[in-house]
Amino acid sequence: MKTSVRLSLVASAALALTFAMAAPHARADDPGITPTSIKIGMIGSLTGPAAAWGWPTINGARMVYDAVNAQGGINGRKIELVVEDEQCAPPMALAAAKKLIHRDKVFMLHGGSCSGSILATRDEVLANEVPMMILVATMDKIVQEKPNDYIYRAFLPGSFDGKIIADFIATMPNVKRVVVVGHADEHAGARYGTLTEGLKKHGVELLGLETIETELTDATAQVLKIKDAKPDAVVLVGRPAASAVFLKDAHRLGLDVPMIGATVVDLQDLADRIGGTDALKNMYVVAVYKGPLGSEAMTPWQEMLKKYYPSDKVQASSFLGTSGALAVVEGLKKAGPDLTRAKFVEAMNGIQNLDGGPMACSLSFSAADHDGCRTGVMWGVRDGKIVVIGDRWKN
Amino acid sequence: MEIATLLSVGLSNGCLYGLVGLGLVLVYSSQGIPNFAHGELFMAGAFLAYTAIVLLGLPYFLSFLIAVVGIGLMGMLLEWLAIRPISLHRSLGRASSEVAIVLATVGLAIVLKGLARIPWGDSVRNLPTAFTTQTVTIGGVAIATQRLLIVAVTLVLTVAISVFFARAPLGKKMRATAQNPTGAKLIGIHTSNIYSATWALAAACGAIAGVLAAPLIFLHPDMGTRMLLKGFAAACLGGFGSVTGVLLGGVLMGVVEIFAGRYIATSMMDIFAPIIIILVLLFWPQGLFGARRAARV
Amino acid sequence: MLDITGLRAGYGAHEVLKGLSMRVGKGQVVALLGGNGAGKTTTLSAIMGLIPSQGGEIAFESNSIQGQPAHRVFRHGLSLVPQWRELFTDMSVQEHLELGAIACASRGDLDARVASALDYFPELRAHLGRRAGTLSGGQQQMVAIARALTARPKLLMLDEPSMGLAPLVVRELGRTIKRLNEAGTSVLLVEQNMHLALGVASYVYVIRAGKIITHGPTGDFHDEKELFHSYIG
Ligand SMILES: Nc1ncnc2c1ncn2[C@@H]1O[C@H](COP(=O)(O)OP(=O)(O)OP(=O)(O)O)[C@@H](O)[C@H]1O
Ligand SMILES: [Mg+2]
């Protein structure tokens, strides 16, 4: 009796050890997969301060999964979604990630509308080796910080704005001196580094940084100051409301040099705020989409949204999460019928030049770089209409 | 030229600060408390005007009137619902009931802002300006017509309110109640009603400021927060006691702010209000333009 | 005209008046005498409705005024000149006189009301534009009484009007009270200055610890010292 107890103890300990050692490498059946389904957990700001971004961006990604399911799924498996609310608050985001990973046992995550809160889930996601696609959070380090073997992003991260603007300015003839106008917050700060670096590289002189408050009500002082400096162009890194105030006052006070705006603003939205495109004649904005809403490039995506979520308003933020879902679907297909998390990660790292759908960039991932989308495109106003300029001045 | 442009903007901004400050001063001098919900009355005024103009398609000046009267009534209702029960609560001493009322106004601010988020959410809204002509050029300086309207309305309102306090029976009752509530009760004044009327007047002033400011700053449930700070600074400069004092305080704020932004640093502009509040409260508690503070027992 | 029976009132849990009864007849000047903290001011405050009463009955001209707030009591024709005067420091003398009648239904004769109030205090004529806060103590007392007079009260209640005044001014005050009474105003005078009180009142109540301990026509109290000791205890 005694011996047999000891024996069985040793046996089970050995067994446990074998499992423990084997587990991280070749788990035969990863969670969230059955022969007919793949469970994906989505996290978004459904309530709270960024609620305006919640459902629109989630549904813009979900419609891709819906469309895939409608065609029979991937290798016979349909995608099953569980949606959790992060309320744009770090503890809520972490709680949502833990629930999805441990309780719902999802195969992977697709989520994050607020950079600050989704950053809080990073350690939990990496420690559990759960693949994750970022929904719409722009902060660089969520994806770019090392080590990161599991977290991917398929749209333009914040800092790339700066580089795109600098490259665009370099193609403008006679623009040698620029002033930057922007907020003193983290959101704008993410763009300044690559912007100054890029301008320096192209030999463009940076005359100074004018701060504007996010709740700016009047920009007379800033505009007059900038006029004094006589720049050839102005870079505007402001949130929509403040940018609109600045542009209105610049127009009124006759500051008529070209202005280049970051992705923070959207030309159509600015025109709505200002009431017309008069003040925007000289404005260029980095855009992430292939074209404005209603343009040919966007029509299939707008129709897809209408088909699956007919009550959703078609708006600029609707398709920010779409490219992420497209990349996930591609990764799942390439990973083959014997799906595991490891195989999925390997497949993701192999994606090259995948069409970004509504996004202006094509998606390429590698084991070293999980930020798949690195280019945007310039939009401007021509004859009162918003048009795609490309990535060169007057293209 | 540049000076004139800066002045025109500084002056009109200052008038707005003064108008917001005026509402604060009215409640403060009658009840001795800063009304932290005043910024939300400002916001509510702007949204009510938006509803009338944009959603119902009513003419501008009629909508303006609806907003002012509507928010005036709302101020009265708030006083009746949230403030009066506290001040009539006999078990509280005067000091603790004042603290309770201040906290009640903070609570009101949060509730009103939260309620505004339900219908209005976070999307973009513009309140149209009063005139279709956006700017006029005076002596080579392009000035927004909305800014001229702001200055004109503020001046007229300041004169009207000064006359109201000096001549109208209700104005006199308000002053008497502000200076000595017991004395006022003894001459037959229903002081509770005077407080309601004061809230109504203060709220109406807030609504006027909101409707005037909205075309410049866009509509948003949070739009009152920053304005409250500016109005508070104006009221501090004005010594929290006189109608003309708070207007002068506001104008000084607006002008100094924009010149400092232009010639020192634009990043300074928004920290100006809190600095003024602290400095004035520390060194000139009577305010710079406060001829005399209403005596409170 | 004023009948109080078994009045109980105080501040929160602290009961000051413990069943006080007294009456003021029409056309009378009645004095209420008592030491510090006896409850004189509390009595007037309870009558006027500045503080609630916990029991008993207050009737004015046979109507109950108990539990009514001050602005309602005022409308029955009662005016109180409070111990601390309660003036509007930043307002002028003229404004005080006008404000006195601001809650009266018939204000068409405002000028007449102000003029007749000034007849009692001609000295104020020279100071009509001055702010009340800048006047001397005696003048402030005049403003406080004159403010109450413009309302033309049926019963005027004075709470220690002699407090802080020079003897000469007190004597003048006594004459004024008599004139007022002759003109038809009933007066309830609260005093610690016995000389003034006995000089003008026809009936005297003495209050101690919230109760009337003795009362009677002024003639019964010829010995001021004895009276004084009765309420000092
Ligand atoms: N507001 C108050 N709160 C609490 N207790 C009070 C208040 N006012 C007066 N008292 C108390 O009530 C009692 C009676 O006060 P009251 O003022 O009626 O006396 P009084 O006879 O008018 O005295 P005095 O001659 O000093 O004016 C005193 O013990 C006093 O301390
Ligand atoms: Mg007393």
Automatic annotation (TrEMBL), chain A:
<dbReference type="InterPro" id="IPR000709">
    <property type="entry name" value="Leu_Ile_Val-bd"/>
</dbReference>
<keyword id="KW-0029">Amino-acid transport</keyword>
<protein>
    <submittedName>
        <fullName>Branched-chain amino acid transport system substrate-binding protein</fullName>
    </submittedName>
</protein>
<dbReference type="Pfam" id="PF13458">
    <property type="entry name" value="Peripla_BP_6"/>
</dbReference>
<dbReference type="InterPro" id="IPR028082">
    <property type="entry name" value="Peripla_BP_I"/>
</dbReference>
<dbReference type="InterPro" id="IPR028081">
    <property type="entry name" value="Leu-bd"/>
</dbReference>
<keyword id="KW-0813">Transport</keyword>
<feature type="signal peptide">
    <location>
        <begin position="1"/>
        <end position="22"/>
    </location>
</feature>
<feature type="domain" description="Leucine-binding protein">
    <location>
        <begin position="37"/>
        <end position="372"/>
    </location>
</feature>
<keyword id="KW-0732">Signal</keyword>
<comment type="similarity">
    <text>Belongs to the leucine-binding protein family.</text>
</comment>
UniProtKB/TrEMBL annotation, chain B:
<feature type="transmembrane region" description="Helical">
    <location>
        <begin position="136"/>
        <end position="165"/>
    </location>
</feature>
<keyword id="KW-1133">Transmembrane helix</keyword>
<feature type="transmembrane region" description="Helical">
    <location>
        <begin position="6"/>
        <end position="29"/>
    </location>
</feature>
<feature type="transmembrane region" description="Helical">
    <location>
        <begin position="231"/>
        <end position="256"/>
    </location>
</feature>
<keyword id="KW-0812">Transmembrane</keyword>
<keyword id="KW-1003">Cell membrane</keyword>
<dbReference type="InterPro" id="IPR052157">
    <property type="entry name" value="BCAA_transport_permease"/>
</dbReference>
<keyword id="KW-0472">Membrane</keyword>
<comment type="similarity">
    <text>Belongs to the binding-protein-dependent transport system permease family. LivHM subfamily.</text>
</comment>
<feature type="transmembrane region" description="Helical">
    <location>
        <begin position="194"/>
        <end position="219"/>
    </location>
</feature>
<protein>
    <submittedName>
        <fullName>Branched-chain amino acid transport system permease protein</fullName>
    </submittedName>
</protein>
<dbReference type="Pfam" id="PF02653">
    <property type="entry name" value="BPD_transp_2"/>
</dbReference>
<feature type="transmembrane region" description="Helical">
    <location>
        <begin position="95"/>
        <end position="116"/>
    </location>
</feature>
<keyword id="KW-0813">Transport</keyword>
<feature type="transmembrane region" description="Helical">
    <location>
        <begin position="263"/>
        <end position="284"/>
    </location>
</feature>
UniProtKB/TrEMBL annotation, chain C:
<protein>
    <submittedName>
        <fullName>Branched-chain amino acid transport system ATP-binding protein</fullName>
    </submittedName>
</protein>
<dbReference type="Pfam" id="PF00005">
    <property type="entry name" value="ABC_tran"/>
</dbReference>
<dbReference type="GO" id="GO:0005524">
    <property type="term" value="F:ATP binding"/>
</dbReference>
<keyword id="KW-0547">Nucleotide-binding</keyword>
<dbReference type="InterPro" id="IPR003439">
    <property type="entry name" value="ABC_transporter-like_ATP-bd"/>
</dbReference>
<dbReference type="InterPro" id="IPR027417">
    <property type="entry name" value="P-loop_NTPase"/>
</dbReference>
<feature type="domain" description="ABC transporter">
    <location>
        <begin position="2"/>
        <end position="232"/>
    </location>
</feature>
<keyword id="KW-0067">ATP-binding</keyword>
<dbReference type="InterPro" id="IPR003593">
    <property type="entry name" value="AAA+_ATPase"/>
</dbReference>
<comment type="similarity">
    <text>Belongs to the ABC transporter superfamily.</text>
</comment>
<dbReference type="InterPro" id="IPR052156">
    <property type="entry name" value="BCAA_Transport_ATP-bd_LivF"/>
</dbReference>
<keyword id="KW-0029">Amino-acid transport</keyword>
<dbReference type="InterPro" id="IPR017871">
    <property type="entry name" value="ABC_transporter-like_CS"/>
</dbReference>
<keyword id="KW-0813">Transport</keyword>
